[in-house]
Amino acid sequence: MGMLLGVLVLPANFSDDYGAKALLRRIAFVTRWLLFIFDGGYDKPPLIDWCQNLFGVAVQISRRITERGFAVIPKRWIVERTFAWLNRSRRLSKDYEERSDVSENMIYIAMIHLMLRRLHR
């Protein structure tokens, strides 16, 4: 559905695999999860092994299909659609916040607003 399970805002000098581990430690694990789908930037054997050993789920890397031109990447459109929903929030259109916890909370507020609008049709 594209709803957020967790948000973690880190400075740019942190690596992607560090951020992925930190985020996965923060969210509540659901035993019915069968698969983690990561972007190509997370294709690092230590991260993949860590996810498989700690959570016991399979890890799939979503790769580009073609080198040239536009092509829809399977499952990637869910993430891109969620980013588009969040960018409709005026406060998230630019990075106005100085603190990362405020940025995380503004993302949660925007997602709560979206979910409430869908429930109250």
Mean pLDDT comes to: 84
SS-based structural class? mainly alpha
* Tally of helical runs: 4
- Using DSSP, what is the number of strands? 2
Helix proportion range:
40-55%
Shape: globular
Rounded to an integer in angstroms, the radius of gyration calculated over CA atoms is: 16 Å
Please tell me the total number of domains: 1
> Could you spell the SSE succession in H and E letters?
HEHEHH
**Main sheet: strand order:** 1-2
Unreliable spans are none
Instruction: Assess the beta-strand content as a share of residues.
Output: 5-15%
Major pleated sheet: 2 strands, parallel
| Ends distance | 17 Å
Please outline what is shown here.
The protein is mainly alpha-helical and 121 residues long. It is built from four helices and two strands.
